[in-house]
Amino acid sequence: MIRTNLHLITLSVAMMISNVALAQEQNGEERKIREFVTSNPMVHDPVMAREDGVYHIFATGMGIQRMTSKDRKDWQVKAMPVMTVIPKWTHDSVPGFDKHVWAPDIIRWHNKWWLAYSCSTFGKNGSAIGLLSAAKLDSPIWNDEGCIVASRENRDNWNAIDPNFVIDDNDTPWMVWGSFWDGIQIVRLDTTMHVAKGEKPRTLARRYAPGTTTAEPNPTSAHAGTNAIEAPFVMKHQGYYYLFVSWDYCCRGSKSNYRVAVGRSKNVDGPYLDKRSNDMLNGGGTVLLEGDKKQYEATGHCAAYSIDGKDIFICHGYSTEMKGAPVLIQREIRWTDDGWPELESMNH
User: Fold this and answer.
1) I need a labelling partner for 20 at 20 to 30 A (CA). Which of 41, 153, 190, 298 fits?
2) Which residues are registered as beta bridge partners of 243?
3) Is 52 in the active site?
4) Set 105, 156, 182, 230: catalytic member
5) Residue 275 CB coordination number (10 Å)
């Protein structure tokens, strides 16, 4: 996710509003962690998993924000992040990166939880996607599995952020990622969830066809250009892989114009076509969700899951009532007769 200072301010305000803090004891030494429960959590770039009847959300934040719920209505926001220690290699690989970890993804595969996360700085593609593992979602300690993939300025025309794991029909793991530059990337992984030997990333989706211009002339930065596409997520449903992406601009509060588009393919590595059979590699995509300017100014960075016979879509939306603060959106997915997703009203 391309970040702005406004995004950091928004998250800081959200945490203050929600009273997440380390409370100093009267003796000035012992600190107690205060957590809280809310039905309208502030969150950015959420992904979700469930274990032992408990839903877990992981999201952008200092050391990766997390929260839990038993019913997806009342969420307990955890003050302790996933990463209490940031691996040294992340600072060596990404100059300027500190503790603000972006856009994680979570998946259970081969009896282990794998969590990918993004290390970057605003508007540049000197970035890295790191990997953690744990036996349980509520584990207090996640194992550092190193770097999955890294991008370098003046070397790569893609940005190593916004990861998403995909397991194909042959039980082979893949990863999609990307933000701006040449768009969404895909590569096959090995059994350690690192890039398989001999594999190289290739572009899967762009905001517009090469050689053309966009309707949005306002690039995020002088480095990123105008290919405003990011935050991929792939869901399998009845013989198709569905690629969800976010178009346009996040992280600008009430001025955001983020929206979610989708295409589908019979193969995990594409081509992904929209409802009009336009290839997402050349700018195709069917808009699924966007801001209504009443409840949300904009919506984006989504994830989608099949849980207990229901297909669930989540993302963050910039709340109109809360002056552009990012909040959790949940919708149930229903499928049209010809196999395209539509979203039902659910909560928030």
Assistant:
1) 298
2) 234, 263
3) no
4) 230
5) 15
Strand 202-205 and strand 229-237: the pairing is unpaired
pLDDT in tens, 128-137: 999 999 999 9
CATH number, domain with residue 300: 2.115.10.20
pTM: 0.90
Give me the domain span that covers residue 285: 5-347
Give Cβ neighbours of residue 118 (< 8 Å, ≥ 6 apart).
Answer: 1, 101, 102, 103, 104, 127, 128, 129, 130, 160, 161, 162, 163
Instruction: Say how many domains are in the chain.
Output: 1
Q: Each residue of 15-46: pLDDT tens digit?
A: 433 333 333 333 443 445 578 999 999 999 99
Q: pLDDT (tens digit, 9 = 90+) per residue, 223-236? A: 556 789 999 999 99
Instruction: Name residues whose C-beta falls within 8 Å of residue 49's C-beta, 6 or more positions apart in sequence.
Output: 55, 56, 58, 106, 107, 108, 113, 137
What is the C-alpha to C-alpha distance for residues 312 and 334, in angstroms, rounded to an integer?
Answer: 9
Give per-residue burial for 124-144: e unless 16+ CB within 10 Å, then b.
Answer: bbbbbbbbbbbeebeeeebeb
Q: Is 230 a residue of the active site?
A: yes
Residue 12 has pLDDT above 70, yes or no: no
Instruction: State how far the Cα of 291 lies from the Cα of 272, in Å rounded to an integer.
Output: 24
The neighbour count for residue 107, using CB atoms within 10 Å, is: 18
